[in-house]
Amino acid sequence: MTQIVARKNPVAFKTQAIAVTASPEVLRYEPIGSPLSFAQMQQLRQPLRLDDPHQFQATLANLGVSVDLHLRWQQRDFRLLVRQDRQDHGDQVLKLLSGYVPSHELRVPLLTVMTEIAEELLIEANSGWLQGRYQDTWLPQPYADSLIRDEERHFALSTRAGDARPVLCRELNLLERPHAYVHLPTSSLQLVYQMQLSLPDDIESPSLLHADEFLDQESGELVARMDHQRPELFLAEYRNDEPTGELYHLQRGELISQPSADLLLSEAFAPQEGWLIAAGNCPLHQGLGRR
User: Fold this and answer.
1) Which of 63, 123, 248, 290 is close enough to 255 for a disulfide, judged by CB 3.0 to 4.6 Å?
2) Backbone angles phi, psi at 80, to 5 degrees
3) First to last CA, the chain
């Protein structure tokens, strides 16, 4: 059963196009031009061609962020994925938690990552809903008016070490050194942050759910909803750092096996050449072994 967890007036989203300069060693971007509405940004997301995948200059439609979130649960390792119907791509994929970066966070996109995690990842236990914490910072509580929070427990986020090449906004190195790629079909720069999710040791019967937003055409409100029967948040299992091909939901402390045949992954898992990814998606069994 679907539960509505928030209603709000849509905030006027504004972002900017970005100028990107890439070499084999480093990628640098900076916001340019006037603020863009969501519709204006979408109009700029047209297929792009770049001849040299390692060195180029280009103006891209937007900056996006994702978080590659891993969880160790009951001595087993998992990667978190969200199912999404993508009408603009004409497909259904499993993807990372992700979002568009607004203008005021283009220089610190890690802030957008924290907001996306707080809005999309819902963790329920017998004692209530868990707030998140990243290092010394509490994540926002977008559904505080609808969900009863566990006042004693929280989930924790930490950075997973990676070997990503440096990415700079102007002359400033980005915090936590995200992996970067330019997605040619949408003319966008995408940053992927590697993080570890830790649940409290004494948590009882946890469930992991996904909240998504849609625009209610009648009321004009932006509505956030979740569904215990369709959690839409999947755990892909890994063993010795290799994918097993098994998918699960975590519901009331139980891992519920899910079918994986014919599923696709988003472009974040597709083959990358230099800084570029040209595919729109990739098969599940091929993509989970990457990065």
Assistant:
1) 248
2) -90, 130
3) 35
DSSP 103: G
d(CA 75, CA 167): 34
Q: How many CB atoms lie within 10 A of CB 93?
A: 23
> Which element (helix H / strand E) includes 42?
helix 38-44
Overall pTM surpassing 0.85 (yes/no): yes
Contact 274, 289 (CB under 8 A): no
Which value, in Å, is the radius of gyration of the alpha carbons in the chain?
19
Look up residue 258 and give its two tokens: 């899910």
Residue with structure tokens 């566990």? Answer: 150
- How is the chain split among helix, strand and coil, in percent rounded to 5? 10, 55, 35
3-class secondary structure, 131: strand
* Collapsed DSSP state (helix, strand, coil) of residue 105: helix
DSSP secondary structure of 156-192: EEEEPP--PPPEEETTEEPTT--EEEEEGGGTEEEEE
Rounded Cα distance between 285 and 158, Å, is 27
User: What does the angle CA 174 – CA 184 – CA 32 come to, to the nearest 5 degrees?
Assistant: 50
* 3 state SS of 119: helix
263 vs 256: CA distance, rounded Å? 17
Encoding tokens for residue 80?
């978190």
